[in-house]
Amino acid sequence: MMNAPSQTENPTGYHARYEIKKADGTPCDPSAVYFVLRLDSGGGDHHHIAACRAAMRAYIESATGGPLDDLALDLEGLLDEQSPISVEDNPFPIPVSWPDGLVANTHYQVPCDDTGRNGGSWLRMLVANDGDCFPSMQQWEEIPGSKPSPFPAIRIRTLAGGGRNARTRTALLWLAQAMRLDAQESAISDP
């Protein structure tokens, strides 16, 4: 196998940490390069584990639907069995990258789960060309003579409560968590 630097030579980067051997005893390809992914929630580096799980999800997605489909299904089951990583230990479990399929300079919108006949109440997000996000909302029962609320608040319910926007609700929970952590960090860093 290709020689990797030692942990002493490269302590925070790629380095030799494990000895890889084939289970059947046959020798490994001497020019092979291996990287071990830790999927369980143990250990002290939750950022590493989150990155390993994201790498495994990418492998599963790539392997699904082809000759590695059975392996992909097994790995997905293995990954799904793992305990969640604590949010307190890993405040950024959602990858900080551009999501696949998201188009810049486009409005994305979901309706309120309670009010707004004919689309009068909604939550909208504009993702600008530079990646900045512009959330907005409108609360309005389209009744003759009424006006949109100057202080809009729409409800995105849980599925059990009759909600229709489960992904949006999950993202809003993470947005609230990010806001809490940012405010906490700002309070600590502000004199």
Topology diagram in text:
Layout: H1 46-63, H2 69-80, E1 106-111, E2 122-127, E3 133-138, H3 166-189
Antiparallel strand pairs: 1-2, 2-3
Helix pairs in contact: 1-2
Name the features.
191 residues, alpha+beta, 9% strand, 3 strands, 3 helices, three-stranded antiparallel beta sheet, single chain
Helix vs. strand class: alpha+beta
Provide the β-strand percentage band: 5-15%
* Widest β-sheet, arrangement of strands: 1-2-3
Shape: elongated
Helical content (DSSP H or I, runs of 4+): 25-40%
Q: In sequence order, what are the helices and strands, one letter per element? A: HHEEEH
Mean of pLDDT: 79
Largest sheet: 3 strands, antiparallel
- End-to-end gap: 52 Å
Oligomer: single chain
Q: List low-confidence stretches.
A: none
- Count of extended strands: 3
Number of helices: 3
Q: C-alpha Rg, in Å?
A: 23 Å
Structure summarized in a few sentences:
The protein has about 190 residues and is of the alpha+beta class. It has helices at about 45-65, 70-80, 165-190; strands spanning about 105-110, 120-125, 135-140. It has a domain at about 105-190.
Structural description of this entry:
It is a single chain. The chain has 191 residues and is an alpha+beta fold. The chain has a domain at 106-189. It is 28% helix and 9% strand. It is built from three helices and three strands; from the N terminus they run H-H-E-E-E-H. It has helices at 46-63, 69-80, 166-189; strands at residues 106-111, 122-127, 133-138. It has a three-stranded antiparallel sheet with strand order 1-2-3, with no helix packed on it. Strand 2 (122-127) and strand 3 form a beta hairpin. It is elongated.
